[in-house]
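Minutes, project huddle
Topic: does the predicted pose make sense with PMV bound?
PN asked that the exact inputs be recorded in the minutes so nobody has to dig through chat later. Recorded below.
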Amino acid sequence: MKKYEAVRAILGNKLYVPPKYASAKAYAPTNIALCKYWGKRNQELNLPMTSSLSISLGSKGATTELMVSTHAHDLVFLNNHPVDLTTSFGRRLIEFLDLFRAHGMPRFIVNIESNIPIAAGLASSACGFAALAIVLDQLFDWELPEYQLSILARLGSGSASRSIWQGFVEWHAGFRADGMDSFAEPISESWPELCIGLLIVSEKEKMISSRDAMQRTVTTSPLYSAWPSKVSRDLSLVKQAISVQDFSLLGRTAESNAMTMHATMLSAWPTISYMLPETLLAMQKIWQLRRDGLSLYFTQDAGPNLKLLFLKQDADIISQEFAGVDVLQPFLE
Ligand code: PMV
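Predicted holo structure (tokens), as shared on screen:
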């Protein structure tokens, strides 16, 4: 099945109805996975090998405005700067919009405002595609249920399926070949004291996209076969930690899950490593602080920067230890 066929399966005849409004605007938060999505069972539809679980970052995300345009081409602005539509970011965005444009549908002016530190290697595509799915729904007045918005966002980027909601979110891998059972859903638990610290250790560009890195890992890593069972154990541990608010269990599980994901990449060929010397130094500092009694953990995605996990009571000491760390309280943002 192709992406446009999945879109047609969801929208049916609505696909041929022009926009109801001249413009619309929507926000979506970015999210950090505590139990990661790593590896696809279907590349075209971004269907994952396993389920995953994340936390959305409140007011850190993207606001996207779509305006119906009379121009012959789309115009895209990111934080008021024109986006070159020949770059991979520009192309992915236009390809996504094209999925929803039957013959004769208008071009758009797209204004994206993102308040995520660009260098943080934070899932900016996650909030970007989620905000686009929501704003398209508003502009065309489709009134789709959220689980279908999650499916549409997934077609842009897998992790975007989780950015439709705030709080803890689980993305169900699903079994179906058409992916109609592969969407995210919120977990109705709140944890106001939970903090995430964005620790930028390097602003260098990432060397390989998560898309290519995942695929290389799945096809060449001898350790990848251990990943699905690790995820299924970690998913139930993270859910248990959330339901009884056991922070140490949450932190241990999230850190171990991230390290295992990176271990699958290290054993891929050619080897993939998102760790820079600064990343390892920060990890060693975290492990030392933990040996000294601080309840501090981290997770790491497809980039060199770390996301620290800790409770509010330790926020001051963590800000002192890690100069420049950006401390967020996702449930209070
Ligand atoms: O959605 P993508 O293609 O950007 O992949 C995201 C992969 C990780 O961030 C490393 C893990 C995750 O679950 O978000």
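Observations noted during the meeting:
- The longest helix spans residues 247-266.
- The two ends are 39 Å apart (CA to CA).
No decisions taken; revisit at the next huddle.
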